[in-house]
Hints:
elongated, eight-stranded mixed β-sheet, Rossmann fold, about 500 residues, 20 helices
Amino acid sequence: MSAEIKQVGVVGAGTMGIGICEVAANFGQQVLLFDLNQEMAHKALNSMEERLKRRAFKGKITQDQVKDIMARIEVVDDLAKFNVCDLVIEAIIENLEIKQQLFQKLEVITSSLALLATNTSSISITAIAAGMKNPSRLFGLHFFNPAPVMKLVEVISGLLTDPEHLALGKSMCKAWNKVPVLANSTPGFIVNRVARSFYGEPLKMLQEQLADFVQIDAVMTEAAGFKMGPFKLMDLIGIDINYAVSQTVYESMFNDPKFRPSLIQGEMVDANTLGKKTAQGFYNYLEGAAKPQAEYVHSDAQFDELTVPEVETFFSAMFSQFEYDKRKWQGDQVIISGCILQMSDGRLAKTREQEIKAPVCLVDLSFDYVNSQAVHLCFSPGVDTFMQNRIVALFNHMGKKVMVCDDQPGLMALRTMVMLINEAADAVFNGVCTAEDVDLAMRYGVNYPKGLLAFAEQMGWAHVAMTLENLQQWFGDDRYRLSPYIRNQL
């Protein structure tokens, strides 16, 4: 494929555009870079050279590689020079009208055989192509930032896109050592659609005053296993950018409550507290600012007999694999000092206690209970101080930090995770992508530890369904409605 595409054109010298230039040049292709602001284009190229030199200094690439990459990229002052290109990728401002005007020009300038692609993250491919005489030529190549590092590329079809162009685009991405996933042109495509819940649900929990943003971030990273908490990630992305994408997806999906933007984010945009770029977002980035810490509980109490199910489950594995001489293998429950420990399923601990007529400790979800740094718990009213201390002490003895919250449905990580799984399932059910591609997209596009649907299979589809149905009953909110895809797995 790389042999067929020898000359690549990139329009836009911003962060994404210059990153795409580097990707193509690194794999031996000649690259033409155009930006209306010629000074910006040259500055971007100089910055890239400095970045590459730093990598060479660290021994990650050679000086010869730096020279070769730079020699393959040329800044041009006229779009007409793209007439030699086999592939043109647009990476300019997210504005439908401006993109339409650009591709109207490009389809005339370039050969009819040349591939035309947009790096848009949220605008409909079909809408952009609507301004072209031959809309079948346009498709999406949505890279993730930083483009030279991130493996995922969403290869997106508009309603009229030629399937052969998609195949060529996917082949090109593989030649660049990327992980391409195919998606139909729908709001947010795969990643920006599915990942909305990673921000939306924690923001809703913050507004409900279930915990502060520091505590929620700690639960999502140390207990659940995500690489970065939602609030720190929003600060990194930019509150304004994240809010704008949420608004676009919400409006484009005809105000589906699953994508409802947050009032908190709206207020922060109005206040210009946009995250790292303004030195103030959820966190304070000013020099010398205090760094808020999550709250943990600790106990040195002596814990007694631990009862573990005879058949190991996803949840009980951390107790089964923990070395402890007072462990008893019996029944199908984890029991510590007379208290039953269960993975949350969207019901209150108080409700579970009333149903099973025994004190209950609910444990929040984790991608990997055995190796997690922490656990997140809540207790039913019948769990006295004696029991609580011994449960905390056991987890501390297992090497885990303990966070405790008030009794709440779904806790924090599970509540967020089932929303992510539900949206991934809905994307497949509604023909946006395949189950395999949605899992690849979330692993390589946003670095989730596991594919969401594969993880749901591991956890158990019935547990996902039960949690969502319990959340919908508790909140009376249609955002928690269960995807038919999940019903089909039961």
